[in-house]
Amino acid sequence: MDDIDFTTRTYGTSGLDNRPLFGETSARDRVINLAVGGCTSLIVLVTVISSFVFPTLPPRPLNVFFAVCILLTCGSSMVLIFWYRQGDLEPKFRNLIYYMLASIVLLCLCANLYFHDVT
What we know:
- The protein has three helices and no strands.
- It is elongated, with a radius of gyration of 21 Å.
- 64% of the residues lie in helices and 0% in strands.
- The chain is mainly alpha-helical.
């Protein structure tokens, strides 16, 4: 049988190309993704809990509605993240995911300021 060397990839170009394929990420990218996702998840969790607890029990319907809107926004981001991790989206969509997560964090900030009556 032929000894085929799969360690070098040319992708139809004249030179070697060491760029990662879809689904392959560096350790640095994985750490950044986990840090951004973890911080966003923690902030959303605090916001959802705050919507039910503050200012008093039982919760205000407007606070719960605000939390539901935030969770719906998180749902669309989670779908994009799932598709990105499956390799169905191009790497350029990572910036869109970061933008959406930053928007969610800012929305949570506004919600928490509203829940705690900060003026």
